[in-house]
Design a protein that fits this description.
This protein is α/β, with parallel strands linked by helices. Helix content is 34%, strand content 17%. Helix 14 runs parallel beside helix 19. This is Thiamine pyrophosphate-binding protein.
């Protein structure tokens, strides 16, 4: 008789060989996975909400640059993950979602929780596959893991029919852990781009989230060699040491007004690992009307065709390494002076604004960010949301990511609650301090899994900016002078305080004034070092917004030229 194991034993065995250490999720009635775990050495973080489970998995993947795994049930359990998959796909998070499915013997019979799950998830993943026979189980796992981490990383999906999970799997399995591949653009593409780069006097490099899988300072060295201004997309932050002399902030919507001149005067823009979504290209139709654009991406779908220029298919680091070996012109001193002058103006305006805020009552987010940089270690992992007040951290130089730090932000989908939940996954993945800067709306949406942090003793510092609700919508209503008494998006009653469950593992603090802010942040750090989950409620003023987003028009602020006329 041939020896056999259960399908879950085979799955766990493969994941173990692939180096997976943690699983996230909420299994269905099939609890055989629990029986397969003890001998594996892996930990299963049982979540309370499937959406949060995918967010946590994404946070884990983005922190480790490795594939994470999420396990859920079928039907509505699977549909609850769709928001998380949408976010993971747009973030480029390598994530394997394993879900139970209706057995093949019951398909089409209106069986309990039957749904066309493949059709639901297929638009949101790189690959979706339903395993119909145990002979295809290990093959499916290997292919899914390979696709998750290669090319542009992203989520993949495997469906496990219920009747499959009762069938024996032969023990003589050979597991092939996933191999990470890389590819350089063709010599023809590199030469075509170089013909523009070598003659450029005012180059600009934009680094996207697709560059987070790399290491080293090759981009900084290339920028220094050619005198190129360095910018990042929101998701590409922390790829570059933001204390570098040529780093100038975040592209598009989040570019400081003092730094717009650099975009306007650049004579070539090189984008590395970016899909060039709308926030990153805000105002480009004005600032880059005739500027050639060089795009480098590993995925064909990631190229933006609304911009003219040269496209290079391949790894951004490989392209930069090739260009580094070629000597172009010496950096243009006038361009370096322009970069330095614009940066100095931005830092000076930040300093003046912080001085102005000292005379204003209450605590303001720029002051809070300044204290975080002073009181928390430089190597922190900062999880962000995309609400009205949390967006201050997107605006360089109000917050800077030094060498060794990590920024994790929502994608252009900006799913509410992503940062709050992803912080738990990040904390499981690293020993570095994890800080989540979130609004009260996002925090309350996440709170179904607050108990998950308590149960598994996952330390995080939550800085909850409480403006009494959904500040972005209220800000739009106020800006457009719409009478909204019947539709209040924020409430003073809500602003009286969020309800934090009381546990020995949890430390609840509050900041209502600037006088107590530094002391409370110091206490938060001390309690975090004692391995506690710390929630610091910061009472935020609705009017505390960056000047770039003070003129609201729908999803986006007005262009600077339009706003200045108002």
């Amino acid at each position: 008789m041939t020896a056999s194991i259960s399908p879950w034993d085979a799955i766990i065995g493969y994941l173990q060989s692939a180096g997976v250490q943690h699983l996230f999720g909420l299994p269905s009635d099939d609890l055989n996975i629990v029986a397969s775990l003890p001998s594996s050495g892996m930990d299963f973080i049982l979540c309370k909400d499937q959406r949060n489970a995918v967010f946590m998995s994404a946070g884990y993947a983005l922190t480790t640059n490795q594939m994470s795994v999420c396990v859920v049930g079928k039907g509505p359990a699977l549909s609850n993950t769709l928001t998380g998959l949408l976010e993971a796909k747009n973030l480029g998070a390598p994530l394997l979602l394993l879900a139970l499915g209706t057995g093949g013997d019951k398909l089409g019979t209106r069986s309990f929780q039957e749904a066309d799950q493949i059709s639901l998830v297929k638009p949101l993943v790189k690959w979706a596959y339903r395993v119909e026979h145990v002979d295809r189980l290990v093959w499916a796992m290997e292919r899914a893991a390979f696709l998750a981490i290669n090319g542009a990383p992203g989520p993949v999906y495997i469906e496990l029919p219920e009747n499959l999970m009762d069938q024996p799997v032969p023990t003589e399995l050979q597991f092939a852990p996933p191999e990470k591949l890389s590819c350089s653009p063709s010599l023809r593409e590199l030469d075509a781009a170089w013909s523009i780069i070598e003659t450029a006097r005012r180059p600009l490099i934009l680094v996207g989230g697709g560059m987070k899988s790399g290491t080293g300072d090759v981009i900084e060295r290339f920028a220094s060699q050619h005198g190129a201004a360095l910018f990042a997309t929101a998701s590409g932050r922390s790829v570059i040491n933001e204390d570098h002399a040529l780093f100038c902030g975040v592209a598009g919507l989040y570019t400081d007004l003092s730094l717009r001149q650099i975009w306007n005067e650049s004579d070539v823009v090189i984008t590395l690992g970016s899909r060039l979504e709308e926030t990153a290209t805000f105002e480009w139709d004005i600032l880059l009307q005739d500027t050639p654009l060089i795009q480098v991406n590993v995925e064909l779908e990631d190229f933006a065709h609304e911009f003219r220029g040269i496209k290079l298919l391949g790894d951004g680091y490989a392209a930069v390494e090739q260009w580094l070996e070629r000597r172009g012109q010496e950096p243009d001193e006038a361009w370096l002076e322009t970069i330095g002058r614009c940066k100095q103006k931005a830092f000076s305006q930040r300093a003046n604004y912080l001085e102005e805020l000292k005379r204003a009552p209450g605590i303001h987010v720029p002051e809070l960010l300044d204290m975080i940089q002073a009181e928390f270690p430089e190597d922190l992992v900062l999880l962000q949301e995309n609400g009205l007040q949390d967006m201050w951290s997107y605006f360089y130089p109000y917050f800077r990511f030094a060498s060794g730090s990590l920024s994790i932000v929502p994608s252009d989908q900006t799913s509410l609650g992503f940062g709050a939940a992803a912080a738990l996954g990040a904390s499981v993945a690293t020993e570095r301090p994890v800080v989540a800067l979130v609004g009260d709306g996002a925090f309350n949406l996440f709170c179904s899994d607050f108990m998950t942090a308590v149960q598994y003793q996952i330390p995080v510092i939550y800085l909850v900016l409480n403006n009494g609700g959904y500040g972005w919508l209220q800000n739009q209503m106020n800006y457009k002078h719409i009478s909204g008494q019947d539709f209040p998006f924020v409430s003073e009653a809500v602003k009286t305080g969020i309800q934090i469950p009381q546990y020995e593992f949890v430390e609840s603090l509050a900041i209502r004034s600037k006088g107590e802010a530094r002391e409370q942040l110091q206490l938060a750090w001390q309690k975090y070092k004692e391995n506690k989950l710390v929630v610091v409620e910061v009472f935020a003023d609705l009017a505390d917004v960056h000047e770039k987003i003070s003129h609201v028009y729908g999803d986006f602020p007005l262009y600077e030229q339009q706003a200045s006329k108002n």
